[in-house]
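This section describes the prediction task in plain terms. A model, or a person checking by hand, is given the sequence of a single protein chain and must write out its three-dimensional structure as a string of tokens. No templates, partner chains or ligands are provided. The sample shown here is typical of the held-out split.
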Amino acid sequence: MFKKIGPGILVAAAFVGPGTITICTIAGVRFDFALIWAILLSILATMALQEMAGRIGFLSQQGLVDVVKNQIKVKWFRNFVIGVVLAAILIGNAAYEAGNIGGATLGLEGIYNSRDFPFLYPLIIGFLAFIILWIGSYKILERIFIALVSLMGLCFVIAAILTKPSLLEILKGTFVPTFPDESILTIMALIGTTVVPYNLFLHAALVKEKWGTSGNLSVIRQDTVVSIAIGGIVSISILITAAASQITDVTNVMDMAKGVEPLFGRMAVYFMATGLFCAGITSAMTAPLAAAYVANSCFGWKGTKDIRFKLVWMIILFLGVFFLSFDIKPIQVIQFAQIANAILLPIMAILLLWIANKKAIVGKHKNTWAQNLIGFVIIGFSFFLGIKSILKVLEMF
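The expected answer:
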């Protein structure tokens, strides 16, 4: 079974980061089990898009940027798309990297029940991520991520079980969509933190690293579906745990841990802190890695051994540690990243759907009518989500 698990587990590790955990926590605290359906919807959309990305990467043996460059013949539009991709991925991932490292830091503080070393924890996490990325071949990275995601999943699922939730309420929240008052922004956030644009580039590149030309599509699809489903179970477990917490205001998962400690004991806090640490450290590695793969495709470098490839992920990692260690809040950069990602998601969804139907790229494995229907629904919703996100950011200025 583990031999068949590949890039999908890195995708799951990337979207189940501190941001997703925080949003799931907020959803559970404010709306109990009512928004589980939104997580399920976002997981299904992620599976559909990531399957297309993985299929294109495997059949073309190229990264998504390479395929886009070859298929878009109009020079100005090709340059526009590549420019948006570079801006969104490089600047966006640098801005969000501080949040990834910050999540792992909160996890360490929860495990050790101490904030005595606020400047040391980010340095330790950054150094650990640096060592793993520097020495790790794909196989080593894959094994590390399988271990961390397994531990993360186990921790959050156990924490959810400890709360003894109502199965009827869970089923109702999963299969009966509702829109509680003031829940629309939370619903958008749940979907926006799960359907992550940079994961599309990461997945296509890693499929080639994992299998080359020796794999087969059924194994790749199985890896994608199983891994992303695991990520969805983790997200739902966090929401369930949050719904049982005795707090009314929350900013992160460790706030929730304080709320469940009186009811379920210190062990619940340890489980959540360990899960948060694993989520933070895995996202702190995948974000720089994705940025490096995108830059590699855009500029035609020689792959993971190229010093320029390593330099990109080093810069992203350094900026995350720097912003967090000195308590710098790059709010304008993050706002730009939100706008760029909001523009990038519908663009990439359209390009994926277009390429996944081109016989010159995918041959007989082009999309079925059902996949195209799902793709059009995702494109429509991503436009809605993008416009809402842009308007929300512009209101802050």
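For orientation: The two ends are 50 Å apart (CA to CA).
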